[in-house]
Every structure is written in structure tokens, then in C-alpha cells.
Design a protein that fits this description.
This protein has about 350 residues and is an alpha+beta fold. The chain has twelve helices and eleven strands. The radius of gyration is 19 Å and the shape is globular. The protein has a single domain, classed as DD-peptidase/beta-lactamase superfamily (Beta-lactamase).
Length: about 350
């Protein structure tokens, strides 16, 4: 496909002449419900054909009345995995690597039994590898707070994970979500191409699609541009955790983006502008029977029976959700700064239903 065609098709939903949709189906109320139930602040962008609705609710910073900017940048957690998986499938299409290559082939000696685990199994979470996240201290412990500015390497996080027994064996026999899988994928991208996954995401996705609010921050702790503050719960209450060293997440979840950029990315991906159809179909194929996670892409059925594809992500102080119908006609991306009184998944899923089904 021609690059110009990709860019034009991807950004048309945000062109200056696009109509701004009214509050169809009570979208603002749905966003207000998210904040009332579980968040300091929230923002969303909904696309319905050529119409776009954007809104925000709550506050950008506790103990202030600052509104959440509708164009704010947020940490998007595991939505990073969809970007990483897209890069991998582009590399497969170009002959750099194969989905059935073993981990051992690319990273000799890094993973016990790596000869039995494939790139495909890393992408769809059927490797059985232990999740490195479960080896780390978590809020509200002081040990967690003490690591806020630490730079983690993928290698040391992977070693923490593989020191633990697999969650199941043999690889491919079951499904267990593990962030370790994508740290390994990031290392394989670098080994295959000589460039980091961040460089590849920037070159292949961010720049061609004009995702000006999207970045792979590496070790930079700041969120540049307008953004709501994010918080974690401690014994003393909410602690501002907007800034941290995102190497903790790495290829499994370090990216920063906006609701508009994520809708643009998923429109391009699901619209067939980033991958040949056979690889898009691979993304939509679950790793296990009746599963709902393929190669970096997840899905669920809404209350009206419409299936939506996308991903969600948890980055400690931020949570993000981005889903689209298969034809990309209807899309919604929601970002939340949780207050930890309740799980935001329930009111966010209700908002997704409003956007897709109303």
C-alpha cells in the first residue's frame, strides 16, 4: 500500500471539516458515571462514521477545579502491546522473522525451554511464562515507592520471571496473560532489526499515522503536553504518581497517547491499512479455543451483540480502553485516572455499550 494513502485514510476522522457529534446516547452522563463511581478524572473520544464526540469529566488534579483537557495525553499501559504486535507482524510480512520462530532462535539461553516457545505464543499469551509483574513490590508498599525512579532493563525483569516456574506446560496448551511475553518480543525486535521496539513503533506507526500525542518514553518520567495527574493509593491516601520511570513497563506497557491518536491507530489497523488481511486475521485468532485474545488484540461482545476489537491498559495511575467495531464505523477510547474506590471497568464498559449500541 502507498504510505500517503495510509496517512490520508487514517487521519480523515480528525480533519478540520469533520462534524462534531452531539451527545448521542448520553455519552457525557456515561463519562460522569465513570468518575462518580471510580475516578478522579476521565476523558473520551467517540467516533461514529464522520462524526466525533469528545468529552471529559472530573478534575485533572485533586483539590483543584481544573478540568481534564479533552486532548490530554495519558499513559496507556497494555495498549502498547497492540502497537508492538503490529510491528512484529509487519516484520513477519517483510521476512525479518517468523511467527513460528522459537525464543531460543532469537535469544539463546535467555528462557528455559525457549526452544519450545514461539513468537506466536508470546504474542497471544500461551507461552506459560510467569508474569514478571508478580515478582515486584506493588502499592502501597514502601518498597514499591522506593523504585519510582529506578531504570529497569528488560533483561533483569525477564530474569525475575524465568526464575519462577511456568504457570502451565507445555507452551501453547493454555492461556495466561503475562507481561513477560512482550518484554521478550521487544528484545526479539531489537535482535532481528538492530533497532529498539520504540524506534520501530516511531518509524512504522507514530510518524506515518501522524500520532502527534503518542510517544514511547523509554526512561523519561514526564508526560509532555496537557495531561491529567494520575494517582496511586497509599496508606496516607492518594499520592500523585504522574511521573515515574516507565522502564518498569517496557514493551509491555510504557506508551503515552491520546484518545484521538488511539482511535486513529485502531481505525488504521482494523481498516487494513497497516497489515495485509491475513495478518489482521491472525491478530483476531485466539490462542486458545473460545479465547478473546489474539496477537496483541482483544475483543468482546457488547450488550447489543456488536463485537468490538481493541485493547485496554493499566499503568498504575492511569487506565485506558480503546475499542472499535470491525468495520471501524464506531469507535470509543476512554482514559481514566482511578481513585481506587471501585474498579472502573464496570462503568467504562457501560459507556462503551452506549457508544457502540446507541
Amino acid at each position: 500500500m502507498k504510505l500517503l494513502a495510509v496517512v490520508t485514510a487514517a487521519v480523515v476522522g480528525l480533519s478540520p471539516g469533520v462534524a462534531m457529534a452531539g451527545d448521542r446516547g448520553g455519552l457525557q452522563k456515561g463519562l460522569d458515571d465513570v468518575v462518580a463511581a471510580s475516578a478522579v478524572g476521565a476523558l473520551a473520544e467517540v467516533r461514529d462514521g464522520q462524526r466525533v464526540w469528545r468529552g471529559s469529566s472530573g478534575v485533572a488534579e485533586v483539590e483543584t477545579t481544573k478540568a481534564v483537557p479533552v486532548g490530554a495525553r495519558v499513559r496507556v499501559g497494555s495498549i502498547t502491546k497492540t502497537f508492538v504486535a503490529t510491528v512484529v507482524l509487519q516484520l513477519v510480512d517483510e521476512g525479518w522473522l517468523r511467527l513460528d520462530d522459537s525464543v531460543e532462535h532469537w535469544l539463546p539461553g535467555v528462557v528455559p525451554n525457549g526452544s519450545r516457545i514461539t513468537v506466536r505464543q508470546l504474542l497471544n499469551h500461551t507461552s506459560g511464562l510467569f508474569d514478571y509483574k508478580d515478582t515486584l513490590p506493588m502499592p502501597p508498599s514502601q518498597e514499591f515507592l522506593d523504585t519510582r525512579w529506578r531504570t529497569w532493563t528488560a533483561s533483569e525483569l525477564i530474569q525475575r520471571a524465568v526464575a519462577e516456574p511456568p504457570t502451565f506446560e507445555p507452551p501453547g496448551s493454555s492461556y495466561a496473560y503475562s507481561n513477560t511475553n512482550y518484554l521478550l518480543i521487544g528484545e526479539i525486535i531489537k535482535k532481528a532489526t538492530g533497532h529498539t521496539y520504540g524506534d520501530q513503533i516511531e518509524r512504522r506507526l507514530i510518524r506515518p499515522l501522524g500520532l502527534h500525542g503518542t510517544s514511547v518514553p523509554g526512561t523519561s518520567p514526564r508526560i509532555r503536553g496537557p495531561h491529567p495527574h494520575g494517582y496511586i493509593r497509599t496508606e496516607q491516601g492518594l499520592l500523585d504518581y504522574t511521573e515515574l520511570n516507565p522502564s518498569l513497563f517496557g514493551a509491555s506497557g510504557e506508551m503515552i497517547s491520546t484518545t484521538a491518536d488511539l482511535n486513529t491507530f485502531f481505525a488504521a489497523l482494523l481498516g487494513g491499512q497497516l497489515l495485509p488481511l491475513r495478518f489482521l486475521n491472525e491478530m483476531k485468532t485466539p490462542g486458545t479455543k473460545d479465547g478473546t485474545y489474539g496477537l496483541g488484540l482483544s475483543w468482546h461482545d457488547t450488550s447489543c451483540g456488536a463485537r468490538v476489537y481493541g485493547n485496554d491498559g493499566d499503568a498504575l495511575a492511569y487506565q485506558a480502553y480503546s475499542f472499535s467495531t470491525a468495520d471501524t464505523h464506531r469507535q470509543i477510547t476512554v482514559a481514566v485516572t482511578p481513585n481506587f474506590t471501585n474498579n472502573p471497568d464496570v462503568p467504562v464498559n457501560a459507556l462503551i455499550d452506549k457508544a457502540i449500541c446507541s
